[in-house]
From TrEMBL:
<protein>
    <submittedName>
        <fullName>STX8 protein</fullName>
    </submittedName>
</protein>
<dbReference type="InterPro" id="IPR000727">
    <property type="entry name" value="T_SNARE_dom"/>
</dbReference>
<feature type="coiled-coil region">
    <location>
        <begin position="41"/>
        <end position="68"/>
    </location>
</feature>
<feature type="domain" description="T-SNARE coiled-coil homology">
    <location>
        <begin position="145"/>
        <end position="180"/>
    </location>
</feature>
<feature type="region of interest" description="Disordered">
    <location>
        <begin position="94"/>
        <end position="114"/>
    </location>
</feature>
<keyword id="KW-0175">Coiled coil</keyword>
Length: 180
C-alpha cells in the first residue's frame, strides 16, 4: 500500500504559511527602514499562490480518500478541520500582505495595551501608538477599515466552521434516531 501523501503535504503547507509570515515581517521591516521591499513582495505573492495550490491539493486528496473510504469519516472530519484552519491562516496572511503595514496582531495588541492603562481618567491623554502616529484622518479610517475587514474574514471562517459542526451534529442526531 502506498504511503498517504496527505500528511507530508499538510506539513509542507504549514511550513510555507510560516515562511510567508516571516517574509511579511521582513517586508514590514524593510518598509520601516526605507529599503526597497519589491523583491520580498514578489516572493510573498508567489508563496501565497503556492499555498493556495497546496490547500486545493489537500482538499482534493481528502475528498478522494473519503469517497474511496481510504480513511474513516472521523479522520476525514479531523482532516477537514485542519484544511479549514489552513485556509483561515491563508486568508489572514493575504490580509496582512495587502495591509502594506504592521502585522494585524501587532495592531490589535497595541490597541489592547493602550486601553489597559490604569489611572488615566481622560482617554484623550493616552499616548498615541506608533502605528497611528503621523497618520491623517483618512489614513486612520483606512487602517480601521482594514482591521474590520480582517475581523470580518475571521468571523466568516468561524461561521463556516460552526455551520459545519452544526451539520455534523445534525447528522449524528439523525444517525442516533435511526439506530434507536
Amino acid at each position: 500500500m502506498a504511503p498517504d501523501p496527505w500528511l507530508p503535504l499538510l506539513a509542507a503547507a504549514r511550513q510555507l504559511a510560516q515562511d510567508i509570515a516571516e517574509k511579511i515581517q521582513e517586508r514590514n521591516r524593510c518598509q520601516r527602514s526605507g529599503e526597497s521591499s519589491a523583491k520580498v513582495n514578489v516572493a510573498i505573492r508567489a508563496s501565497l499562490q503556492s499555498l493556495r495550490e497546496k490547500i486545493e491539493q489537500l482538499r482534493e486528496l481528502l475528498l478522494r480518500a473519503v469517497s474511496t473510504r481510504q480513511i474513516t469519516q472521523l479522520e476525514g472530519d479531523r482532516r477537514q478541520n485542519l484544511v479549514d484552519d489552513l485556509l483561515t491562516r491563508h486568508r489572514q496572511l493575504e490580509a496582512s500582505y495587502r495591509n502594506e503595514g504592521p502585522e494585524p496582531d501587532m495592531s490589535r495588541s497595541s490597541l489592547m495595551a493602550g486601553g489597559a492603562k490604569r489611572g488615566v481618567t481622560n482617554p484623550w491623554l493616552l499616548e498615541e501608538s506608533e502605528e497611528t502616529r503621523g497618520l491623517g484622518f483618512d489614513e486612520l479610517r483606512q487602517q480601521q477599515r482594514r482591521i474590520i475587514e480582517e475581523q470580518d474574514a475571521g468571523l466568516d471562517a468561524l461561521s463556516s466552521i460552526i455551520s459545519r459542526q452544526k451539520q455534523m451534529g445534525q447528522e449524528i442526531g439523525n444517525e442516533l434516531d435511526e439506530q434507536n
